[in-house]
Amino acid sequence: MSLITRVRDWERRTRPTDPAIAAAMDRRWEGLPEHVKTPAQLLGRRTTGCEGTHGVFPACDFACKPCYHSADANKVRVDGEHTKTEVAKQMDFLHEQRGPQSHVQLIGGEVSLLEAEDHAATIDLMRARGRVPMSFSHGDVSDQYLRDVALDSDGKKRWADWSWAVHFDRTMFGREGAKKPQSERELQPFRKKFMDMVEKLREETGLRHYVAHNMTVTPDNVAEVAEVVRDSKDLGFRMMSFQPAAYVGNEQRWTSDFREVTDDSVWAEIEDGVGTRLPYKALQFGDFRCNRVSWGAWVDDSYVPVLDEDDADDLHARDEFFRVFKGNYISQDRSVIRWRVARLVLRNPGILPVAFGWFRRFAKRAGGLRALRSGPVHPMTYVMHNFMDARVVAPAWELNKVGEVSDDVEIRAAQERLAACAYTMGHPESNELIPACVQHSILDPNENRELVSLLPMPTRRKPQPV
Ligand code: SF4
């Protein structure tokens, strides 16, 4: 490549706003329903939303109650070639529909059932399509498996960083050493064990990690949420996400009255564990009935939110930030992000006093500059993602497809939420973007039935009489 071509390429990659990303954002904003087009909305401004894979490796070696997989999931063979082929098709489609960069969960079964080489190759092909993959697992994996995925045959790390979403809660049955946990506390050593493994890998190889902790919340464990939040604060997770259980997936795995648990009761538990109010209305991810998110950092023993929804100056800073920093800043090359930001600031120097003002307020909330300098500062995001029940999703989706609105309050609410969905799966075969609620409620059972024929479990020959 000649010098001029390289300079041109660099100039294009470090443009403050990538035209393809800006176009994807505009399309996303245009497609949003009016009720979520608020000043706080992130979709269509900073992100096109999260994405997930589906129908690739539906099997799991746990028996959770509830389980969002359909009853046929465990009759399907986990197949590396099938996974790579189908994930590539889905990522190509999402790239075309949702723009060149996004976060994607490698999900749809237990990812660690994939052979390590297949897992690594799938991450590679996702990254090649501008996706930032997050491997979704129950976390009951060995140190050796982590290394086999993360390191090549020369023992060198394959990537600069690796994201995980790990699920730990006592609705999960099958964990080695805690097959049928009776309390969340019993799982704390297993949370720590996973985080110790990824941290050791980082120390030895430099492979950075971002780990999101997931927990399904039912009437049985809701009172333990605060304790999990408190006890996990120093384990190194970067996100703690709580999902009130929904009536989705395998009906035989439904247990207590899930709907006794409400958004407010779960959020109050998280706040109790954090020890402070968690503002979540300054930034909106889709519909508040689906997602509540509070971004912030632990500064020593205090949690400090990035934005306070009751502070007019914080809201002004948010608005300015949205105006100046259009599009997302996801890149596998951090130097590209730094250059893009630098060029933007040069073009919009007025953002600097706004940024300083925000930092002053953040530092004040943290207890002053000295507190920021002396204590450890650990970024942490608290999330509640509230899946819907299949019984409302099915009619709501049908009505949305024909452009009609239900008279039923619950179904109308589901329609609104689906229209503003922040978590999408790509279906290249039908040219559709499908909300995860629809995927699990409606499409998974058929998809898995087809996979049972396509990828049958290996059958063993009966012992022959001698
Ligand atoms: S998957 Fe369901 S609960 Fe989640 S954002 Fe989409 S519509 Fe809302």
Which features does this protein show?
single chain, 466 residues, 15 helices, binds iron/sulfur cluster, 11-stranded mixed sheet
Please give a structural write-up.
By secondary structure, this protein is α/β, with parallel strands linked by helices. It has a single domain, classed as TIM Barrel, CATH 3.20.20. The chain is 41% helix and 15% strand. It has helices at 3-13, 19-31, 80-98, 116-128, 143-150, 188-205, 225-232, 263-274, 312-324, 334-347, 351-365, 369-374, 390-402, 409-419, 436-454; strands at residues 50-52, 102-106, 131-137, 161-167, 208-217, 239-244, 291-299, 302-305, 377-385, 423-427, 432-435. Helix 5 links the parallel strand 3 (131-137) and strand 4. Helix 4 (116-128) packs across helix 5. The longest helix is centred in the first third of the chain and has 19 residues, at 80-98. The mean pLDDT is 92. The protein binds iron/sulfur cluster. Iron/sulfur cluster binds next to helix 14 and helix 15. Iron/sulfur cluster binds at residues 286, 290-291, 385-388, 417-418, 421-423, 435-437.
